Amino acid sequence: MTYEAQQPQEKKILVELTLNEALSLTGTRFPQNHRLEVDAMHKIKKQLDEQLIDKRNSLQ
Known about the structure:
single chain
């Protein structure tokens, strides 16, 4: 049995970010546009919420 076979499959989400949004999450600073990081985090949180709601609905 390989190490990969022992690990449970992690659920994945897909979030579409612009290049600058992704860069802002890695620590790159955009002094004239702080909104990039805020928008990127908002997209990620929204996708997580949607996944959690879908999971909750499927359990009912």
